């Protein structure tokens, strides 16, 4: 695997992990009633996912141009990490909204 592909894969893993961590912190902030922090953490999670998507797009673009890479366990892991983090962020948004509604009552 060349250095550029490895950097993109590690970018996927790192930024996806950051997004998931921020989403988890957002849920905790909502549980504590700090919706301003929860909203900020969700924004941060979205920004990390954007960076992860940019890494993924780079890999996809290279493949579309005929520069195929060898798929390794690390590659699969990076894609799995991204998909899981996207789903986790989406669920976190819903959980935060539930906490917001409960706290309004």
Automatic annotation (TrEMBL):
The entry's protein name is: PTS lactose/cellobiose transporter subunit IIA
Query: At which residues is Phosphohistidine found?
Result: 77
Active site, renumbered: 77 (tele-phosphohistidine intermediate)
In terms of Pfam families, this protein maps to: PTS_IIA (PF02255)
Q: Which sites bind Mg(2+)?
A: 80
Q: Which organism is it from?
A: Vagococcus fluvialis
Q: Does the keyword Lipid biosynthesis apply?
A: no
Which cofactors does the annotated protein need, by name? Mg(2+)
Q: Where would one find coiled-coil regions in this protein?
A: none
| Cofactor binding description | Binds 1 Mg(2+) ion per trimer.
**Any one biological process term the GO annotation gives:** phosphoenolpyruvate-dependent sugar phosphotransferase system
A molecular function GO annotation: metal ion binding
């Amino acid at each position: 695997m060349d250095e550029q592909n490895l950097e993109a894969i590690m970018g996927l893993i790192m930024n996806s992990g950051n997004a998931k961590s921020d989403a988890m912190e957002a849920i905790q902030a909502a549980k504590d009633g700090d919706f301003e922090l929860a909203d900020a953490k969700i924004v941060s999670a979205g920004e990390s996912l954007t960076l992860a998507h940019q890494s993924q797009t780079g890999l996809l673009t290279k493949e579309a141009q005929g520069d195929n890479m060898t798929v390794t366990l690390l590659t699969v892991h990076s894609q799995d990490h991204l998909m899981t983090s996207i789903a986790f962020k989406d669920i976190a948004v819903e959980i935060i909204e539930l906490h917001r509604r409960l706290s309004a009552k």
